Amino acid sequence: MMSFLRRILLTMIGLAALVVLEQAFGMTTAIVATAVCFVGYILWLTLRQIAEEGDDDGSA
Amino acid sequence: MITRSEVMISLYGAWRLLIRDPRGIEWLDDSIEGYWKSFFCAIVVLPGYGLWFFFTVYDVNFDAGLFRILLVEGIGYVIGWVAWPLVMASVAPAIDRDHNYIRYIVAYNWSAGISIVIYLIVLTLRLLGILPDGIMAFFSFMALVIILSYHWNVLRIALEVSPAAAAGLVAGDFVLGQIISNFSRGMLH
């Protein structure tokens, strides 16, 4: 129940950080930062998936 | 999806809590489903909040354009709605009141529907311009006192905490609201 609210809060904090970044360094920096964070997020998901699959193989 | 009658019944329950009727809590749905439905009050309150923001905050000379103002205020509004329930999700078990947590958040969320009406009454009086500034400042202060004591009452009835604990939690909610509000206003300059 709380994880949904926590995700909303984190998303909004992320958006607020993006607005601050855009205000301080301009739109280009904000777009680059968004792209870097998105790639980082995908990478983190992939690594987590690989780790989980590794655990499954170990227990099998 | 929440129905119009559910909204009206919940707002009526919140109104009963404002007039210090403990039975007001019986009008609120304190199930898990009712917990999520209570966040619909953010939509109910939004037009009133928009009016209040337009006439009290927007007339301050911001450096930002309309899009940024709407974006930042939108972010602040959503954070304002989820931050306190998240804080209380940690506080309620710590003070051994986790069994009353859902009931409290349902009452707290619906109480926003009554609080915005109090703010709008003060705003209407200010816009009419029939009262001197000193009297208006007094009315604004009284509105704040009523809303804080209303929250204190909701905490006493719904969460069943001691008067001192309720006062501390009211102060915590007020400070958190001020931090969110000031941060979002700061992003507009």
What's a quick, concise take on this entry?
Chain A is mainly alpha-helical. In chain A, 95% of the residues lie in helices and 0% in strands.
As for the number of domains of chain A, it is 1
| Percent of sequence in beta strands of chain B | under 5%
Main pleated sheet of chain A: none
Oligomer: heterodimer
Give me the Rg of chain A, rounded. Answer: 16 Å
Helix content of chain B: over 70%
Give the tally of β-strands of chain B.
0
Fraction of helical residues of chain A: over 70%
Q: State the helix count of chain A.
A: 2
Globally, the shape of chain A reads flat
Report how far the terminal alpha carbons of chain B are from each other: 39 Å
Q: N-to-C terminal Cα separation of chain A, in Å?
A: 32 Å
Please indicate the percent range of residues of chain A in DSSP E strands (runs of 2 or more). Answer: under 5%
Description of the structure:
The complex is a heterodimer of chains A (60) and B (189). Chain A has 60 residues and is mostly helical. Chain A has one domain (2-59). In chain A, 95% of the residues lie in helices and 0% in strands. Chain A is built from two helices and no strands. Chain A has helices spanning 2-25, 27-59. Chain B has 189 residues and is mostly helical. Chain B has one domain. In chain B, 77% of the residues lie in helices and 0% in strands. The model of chain B has no long low-confidence stretch (mean pLDDT 92). Chain A binds chain B through residues 1-2, 5-6, 8-9, 12-13, 15-16, 19-20, 23, and chain B through 32, 35, 68, 71-72, 75, 78-79, 82-83, 85-86, 89, 183-184, 187.
